[in-house]
Amino acid sequence: MRGDHCPGAPLKPQDLAKEQGVSLAVVREALVRVVGEGLADRLPNRGFAVPSFSDRRWQETAEARRTVEPVVLRMSIERGDVEWEARVRAAHHRLVRTPAYVPQESEYYTSAWAEAHRAFHRTLLEGCGNSALLETFDRLWTASELARRWSAHRNPDRDGATEHRRPEEAALARDADTAVALLVEHLTLTAAALTDDSRP
Question: Is residue 197 very low, low, confident or very high in pLDDT (cuts 50, 70, 90)?
Fold first, then answer.
């Protein structure tokens, strides 16, 4: 998540155990877990590796999000009450006030911003009142976290503040069509950054 290992790079258990000062068994268990979350690959007879930019999973996950989240957002706008509106406003305020980058933490965005970002997107959808749909969002969010960090790094000129403010305003104005269109645009830009090999 910090960008210590490049896309496609091998993840050697022995090296990781030495770097982290833990046993080989702990590293192997951790690698199995991150593979399960879609954040690493287990390669037959070749160990573990970081997924590549071109891995089809990122586009499939983005497609799944563009299919599921607009439906849930529309439900949230229809069903959300005043308490939901207040939570959306608070989550957006926290996101705006949290620094996205701190040089000493990593080249990618900070863990605090990552959590504020997740909380904002989830809060937008929580008005739907459907725990099964929110669990689906949680799984897709985790599966796309690595791609999201790479995308931000490869497209640093995006106006993230505007991309989040506009759907918030549309949702609170109960303008579902506009909010959904803005959300789909936001999700599409994130995935598109990983398909352009000319970027650094």
Answer: very low
Q: Which residue has the tokens 């959590």?
A: 115
User: Is the pTM here over 0.85, yes or no?
Assistant: no
Give the length of the chain. Answer: 200
Rounded mean pLDDT of 16-38? Answer: 90
If you write DSSP's letter for every residue of 81-123 in order, what string do you get?
-HHHHHHHHHHHHHHHHS-S--TTT-SS--HHHHHHHHHHHHH
Residue 85 has which token pair?
């509106």
Residue with tokens 């990781």: 16
> Each residue of 40-63: pLDDT tens digit?
889 888 889 988 867 788 889 999
Strand order of the sheet with strand 10-11? Answer: 10-11, 47-49, 41-43
